[in-house]
Amino acid sequence: MDYQRVVEQVMSATAPHLGEGTVADYIPGLAMVNPKQFGFAVATVDGEVYSGGDVDVPFAIESISKVFALALVLSRKDTDIWKRVRREPSGMAFNDLIEIQLENGIPRNPYINPGAIVVADQLLADTGDGVAALRDLLRAETGNRALEVDSVIAESELRSGDRNRAIAYLMASFGNMRNSVELALDHYFRQCSFNITCAELAKAGLFIARHGQRADGSRLLTPGDTRHLTALMTMCGTYDGAGEYAYRVGLPTKSGVGGGLLAVVPGQCSVAAWGPGLDAKGNSAAGGVALEAFVQAGHFSVF
Question: What does the pLDDT look like over 239-262, one tens digit per residue?
């Protein structure tokens, strides 16, 4: 596969769409980002990286961190996380409260905010410092030993996080929080605030493409757990746009409101796109165009 040619085709297809969408201005730290920036990177399982555009510009990982946090929780063989969060698409907004009330404090899946808060709470209970555990994983997989939480974004998350507080306190009222709400939310907000580049994100996702094997050859997840991780990315990873992504892109994908997208071609490569402008579902507008062009150029859909 001529990945560089594919990347060039992706960049050409995406160029007319740069700047489309709206940045997530409800988080002050994200409102300042130039929406016309765009990067695209492919990291292959044999260690090559092919890229175009603004691939070395750091951006907030936001909800893409949920994939890595869940992987760390699943790596503990005695985890009971599936008693605390379900594995079904929601069909509701990613920060919806009504579903939590109706379903007795159990979130539909780990990639919407309620489920991700439960996962962050579980990771904190498992490790004592979920942010450090996530940081160490991202540093090891990207090779960037300086990768760190962006304090400005973290503070923005904290100040604009009242709805997430409402979600967490509602779940706590049903007995589905193991740490104090404020401590768990502090970890959740900081988890979403890591700065990462497009090239680094593609490398970070390679353990998923390698069926759970990390960059150093050790195993984070079993092939079965990795399959479960990617199934959830496909069903739930792009909020209530997941059905459209399955139809248009056909790859396990996770988005973040920082404009990032992480997609995986199992056994072949990990793909990252970044375009800060978001569509109506909260997914990168330009990034979605790029992933669709990538799949068409290389016939990568898993379907």
Answer: 989 999 999 999 999 999 999 999
